[in-house]
Design goal:
331 residues; globular; alpha+beta; DNA Primase, Chain A; Dna Topoisomerase Vi A Subunit, Chain: A, domain 2; 3 domains; 27% helix; single chain; 6-stranded mixed β-sheet
């Protein structure tokens, strides 16, 4: 684990100081959001009670306080730093921890685009061969790019300051590594059977539950259907993507465990809810279907449909098409 400064107390102090300096300070749409009048554009001149700037302050100790104004040109946003505090009329020297180098290093990983970390797909590589041979599917370069495989491990080393983690990072010789959704972890499948099948390397501290999702572009405000596909493991969800693709506006997420409900909650928290949303859950053979159906019943009214699928020919869906016979279980 990275030895990082826990900034929870610092963030609360900064938030309290912003509250003191604000004419209006009120809760936003979630417990981690607040609204203030924008110190950059001056906010609404017609109504002095309008607040167009949102502050986001989560419990994640490595995530700074973020701001975004919906009245500023181009919706001005960023992190609360020295310049922002000065705009608020607050002396930034009150908070010297803002300049903490480890914190800034960690935050750089969070804000770097996934593409810059994972790199371009390397065709004819051991990683590509393993996935295609394991699943019996020939993926295109565009497909492989969506899988968030770290094709060059050196591309991420530059962001890691902890020497122990740098020295224990997986290589690209006998493994394939995937980047988690929050960029906090590298999830590695080892090819050799005499070693553990999976290894998780935490590259930055995070209080978030770790998920893996295939990259996709979702049109949230469409009247058409959106489908959320959930499976236990990364290879399983890539197989679902290849063998049971639900078309445009689809999400593919590995919950990295047996708590399928957590996957639904994860997307609910992001606003994926409504009568046009389908949930498809691809379970392993060791899952208790009755218990899962019981837990899913309270979610049925939130979505158009919830379906469970089990492979009648194999223990999971992470295998070749000739070993897959999907059986739907009604919820």
């Amino acid at each position: 684990m990275l030895e990082v400064l826990d900034l929870s107390d610092l963030k609360q102090k900064i938030l309290d100081r912003i509250k003191e300096a604000s004419v209006i300070f009120k809760p936003g749409s979630s417990s981690s959001q607040w609204r203030i009048r924008c110190p950059i554009c001056g906010d609404s001149q017609k109504d002095p009670n309008d607040t167009h700037m949102y502050l986001r302050c989560t419990s994640d100790p490595t995530e700074p306080i973020l701001y975004k104004c919906f009245l500023c040109p181009n919706n001005k946003g960023g992190r609360v730093d020295r310049k922002f505090l000065e705009k608020m009329g607050i002396n930034p020297d009150e908070f010297s921890e803002l300049d903490n180098q480890i914190f800034n290093k960690l935050y750089s990983v969070k804000k770097v685009d996934v593409k810059l970390i994972t790199g371009d797909p390397v065709m004819n590589s051991p990683q590509m061969y393993y996935i295609q041979h394991r699943l019996g599917i020939k993926f295109s370069k565009n497909d492989l790019d969506k899988f968030k495989i770290i094709w060059d491990m050196d591309s991420i080393l530059q962001y890691i300051s902890n020497e122990r983690i740098r020295n224990t990072m997986p290589n690209n010789h006998n493994t394939v590594s995937f980047l988690s959704d929050d960029k906090s972890s590298i999830l590695t499948r080892v090819f050799n059977d005499d070693k553990p099948s999976w290894k998780k390397t935490r590259i930055i501290n995070s209080n978030n539950r770790v998920f893996y999702s295939i990259k996709s572009d979702i049109e949230l405000f469409t009247d058409g259907e959106i489908t959320i596909n959930l499976a236990e493991g990364i290879i399983d969800i890539i197989s679902v993507y290849g063998n049971f693709n639900s078309g445009p506006n689809s999400i593919y997420t590995a919950i990295l465990g047996i708590d399928y409900i957590s996957g639904i909650d994860h997307w609910l928290a992001k606003g994926i809810i409504g009568p046009n949303i389908n949930i498809r859950i691809f379970i392993d053979s060791n899952i208790n279907e009755k218990d899962l159906k019981k837990h899913l019943k309270k979610y049925k009214w939130l979505f158009k449909n919830i379906s469970i699928y089990k492979n009648a020919k194999f223990e999971d869906f992470g295998t070749k098409p000739d070993k897959i016979q999907a059986v739907e279980i009604s919820v």
